[in-house]
Amino acid sequence: MPQAVSPIPEGFEGVVPYLSMNGAAAALDFMTAAFDAVLVMCHDMPDGRIGHAEVRINGRPLMFADEFPDMNFKGPRGYGGSPVHLHLYVTDCDASIARAVAAGAKIIRPVADQFYGDRSGSIEDPFGHVWHLATRKEILTAEEIMARMPKANG
Questions:
Q1: Would you tell me the crossing angle of helices 93-102 and 24-35 to the nearest 10 degrees?
Q2: d(CA 66, CA 52)
Q3: How far apart are CA 23 and CA 130, in angstroms?
């Protein structure tokens, strides 16, 4: 008798980003160096491109592949940039951003303390994806955040 199959694989209960880029093998190297990504699987195509790869970053899945323009699967540079940012909480955003820059990222927004209780900054990886790295410093109520907001904006 066949084993019952869960319609939703374990660990994929929520939204899982699936990134496309030119140079997925290099992106795997970048994510490993910058974010300690752990490779789960990688399917290489006969032409050398990665057809599908999965990693875990902080225990959560991220899927990616090389561009396949004939399937309308293009990376951010194929569209002139990406409106999607990837948000990642880390234990030390200063050190994590420094590692990402050492691995080839460029700083989009320098690390700074934020009015909502995080210390954060943003980088663009060598493939055009923007990552927002943050470390929670304070737990604030909505009222405390709202009280600080005018100070942060003016």
A1: 150
A2: 8
A3: 16
How far apart CA 128 and CA 75 sit, in angstroms, is 8
Strand partners, 56: 38, 61
- Integer distance in angstroms from the first to the last C-alpha of the chain? 67
Domain extents for the chain? 18-152
Q: Is 112 exposed, middle or buried (0-12, 13-18, 19+ CB in 10 A)?
A: exposed
Summarised one tens digit per residue, pLDDT across range 111-147 is: 999 999 999 999 999 999 999 999 999 999 999 999 9
Selection from 89, 126, 95, 90 nearest residue 108 by Cα: 126
The topology (CATH level 3) of 18-152 is 2,3-Dihydroxybiphenyl 1,2-Dioxygenase; domain 1 (3.10.180)
Q: Using H for helix, E for strand and C for coil, what is the string for 2-27?
A: CCCCCCCCCCCCCCCCEEEECCHHHH
Q: Which pTM was predicted?
A: 0.90
